[in-house]
Structure formats: structure tokens, C-alpha cells
Amino acid sequence: MSVDPSHPAPLRRDARLNRERIVEVAHDLFARRGLDVPMAAVARHAGVGMATLYRRFPTKEALVGEVFSHQFDTCVAVVDDALDDPDPWRGFVTVVEKVGEMQACDRGFSAAVAAAFPAATDVSAERDRAVRRFAELVERAKAAGKLRADFALSDLELVLMANDGVAKDTTEASRVASRRLVAYLLNSFRAEHAGTPLPPPAPLSVVKI
């Protein structure tokens, strides 16, 4: 009987449980310590050998993509919902607040946003789609006269970078600081607070469309 390579055989129960354990442990370690956690530490905490870990996840990027796939799916859903909101400013605020909250609750998330995933992967496609849709939301908010005209897409990266500085752990104090910082930044993005023109956008390259 021939085997269709496009439909790999399902994992045995023990292999499936190992894979789920690896993802669970990696998510916990990345959330608490960031993405610098070595693969060896993930294997050790998951109680599996390195061969088993690399059999399921040949690269660290593959593991990071699997761990944070749900967060990227959530980002896409949040942006899609924001675009359905008849008030583009309210939608813009919702996206920035939600992403800031996700970042404050998970140290690995902002690093995963900036991670280099192979272009053909699902997680890369989802991240790029979220950014493209957010860019559309930005233009709508500007057209409505609610978002300052000199807001650049790379300013979202500045928000994430600044928020990462106050969300160094997952304590309640960090989450409170994150919410206040995001509120300050959102207030500065309002068109009525534009005032003096800003310096040119930062030459950042994490967010691409």
C-alpha cells in the first residue's frame, strides 16, 4: 500500500504526548525567560532526549513558531475584528492595547514577533497578514482624522520595544506599568495632540508589509 507523503501518518500516542509536553514546557520557559532558553534546557525540563526534541522540531525557529502560533492567530483575529469596527480609532486602540497586554503577560511573545521564521511557514504568513491588516487600519484611522498623520507603521515597533522595557516579568506590577505606558503612547497618537512634527520614523525592520 502506498503512502501519500502529503498526509503524514498520525503520531503514536507516546510520540504525540512527547510533542505536546515539549510545546507546553517551551511555552512556559519562553514566557518566563524569553527566547534565549537553550534547546537543551527545553529537552531537560520536558524529560525527553535531544534526539526526540529535534525529531519533532528540527530547528529552534520551528519550536518557537509552534509555541506562539496561537498568539499570532489571536493577533490576526484582533486586527480583523478591529477592521470590522465602524470606529477606526477605537479599533486601532483595541489592537495596540491587546498586543501590549499579550506582551506583558508573556516575555517570549515580543521576541517571537521579531523572530526570523522561514517565509513559507504558517506562522510567518499569519504574522505578515496581521501586519498588512494593521496597516489598513492605520490608514483608516488617519483618514477619519483620529490618528496623527505622521504615525508610521514602524511606530508599532517602538511601542513593543518600549513596552518590553517595562514588562520584564509577568508580575502584576509589570502589567500595571505596561497598561499605563500603552495609554500614554495611545494618547500621543491622537490627531488632536499632533502638535510639533515628529522626527523621521525609526529605520526599524522587524515589521514588514
Automatic annotation (TrEMBL):
Query: Which keywords fit this entry according to its UniProt record?
Result: DNA-binding, Transcription, Transcription regulation
What's one Pfam family the UniProt record gives for this protein?
Answer: TetR_C_43
Known InterPro entries for this protein? Homeodomain-like_sf (IPR009057), HTH-type_TetR-like_transc_reg (IPR050109), HTH_TetR (IPR001647), Tet_transcr_reg_TetR-rel_C_sf (IPR036271), TetR_SbtR-like_C (IPR049445)
Where would I find the HTH tetR-type domain in this sequence?
16-75
Protein name, per record: TetR/AcrR family transcriptional regulator
Is Transcription one of the keywords?
Answer: yes
Which regions of the protein are recorded as binding DNA?
38-57
SUPFAM superfamilies attached to this UniProt entry: Homeodomain-like, Tetracyclin repressor-like, C-terminal domain
Give the PANTHER family listed for this entry: HTH-TYPE TRANSCRIPTIONAL REGULATOR BETI, HTH-TYPE TRANSCRIPTIONAL REGULATOR RUTR
Protein's organism: Amycolatopsis heterodermiae
